[in-house]
Design a protein that fits this description.
Layout lengths: L6 E8 L7 H17 L2 E9 L12 H11 L5 E4 L2 H4 L3 H14 L2 E4 L4 E3 L4 H34 L11 E5 L6 E6 L1
Parallel strand pairs: 1-2, 1-3, 3-4
Antiparallel strand pairs: 4-5, 6-7
Helix pairs in contact: 4-5
Length: 184
């Protein structure tokens, strides 16, 4: 597939948006610049903000679903991601995407790598497949750390999450330690 004048689809995602969409906006800005640099026309932009792509989430990524449908429908020639983990942190989902891109002859451009991968080339496929393993592994490690921290908090008697409706938490002003959880 010829790269110049190709139709590009941009996908941006962040698990937890603490900055009001800034991260996905920054991903999109860099991905649009990559399209301009490569002479690709924009065929679509897909954004799932504040949604995890790990196996631990129950949230559905509506834009991801649209992206995959549009990929299957042949609506673009290049998929642009800021980094592979933006696509998925679930190995089977990532592998299915790579297989679909290879079948449809869709290139994958990773903006943070400054590289366009042609999945018909075994070395390019392997690089992205390894990135998928790394992304899934990072997700598993993060889950393990979170569970360890939650267990330690429970053992120490610290509540998890926000105060329940109708309650307020009182903290010691000097130590910041939880003093009480009271009816509000």
């Amino acid at each position: 597939m010829k790269q110049a004048s190709a139709r590009a689809a941009l996908y941006g995602r962040v698990s937890q948006d603490h900055r009001g969409g800034r991260s996905v906006a920054e991903q999109e800005t860099e991905s649009r610049a990559a399209c301009t640099l490569n002479g690709w026309t924009l065929a679509g932009t897909y954004t799932d903000n504040d949604i995890s792509a790990s196996r631990f989430t129950t949230a559905k990524r509506a834009e991801w679903t649209k992206l995959v449908a549009d990929l299957d429908a042949g609506k673009f020639d290049v998929l642009v991601l800021w980094e592979p983990s933006r696509g998925s942190r679930e190995l089977m989902t990532w592998a299915a995407l790579l297989d679909a891109c290879r079948r449809r002859k869709v290139l994958v451009h990773v903006t943070s790598h400054q590289h366009t991968y042609d999945l018909s080339k075994p070395r390019d496929w392997r690089s992205l497949a390894e990135d998928g393993v790394d992304s899934a592994y990072e997700s598993e490690k993060a889950s393990q750390r979170i569970r360890r921290s939650m267990n330690a908090g429970a053992v120490a008697g610290r509540p998890h999450g926000r105060a329940p409706y109708g309650y307020v938490r009182r903290y010691d002003p000097a130590t910041k330690a939880l003093v009480a959880q009271e009816i509000d």
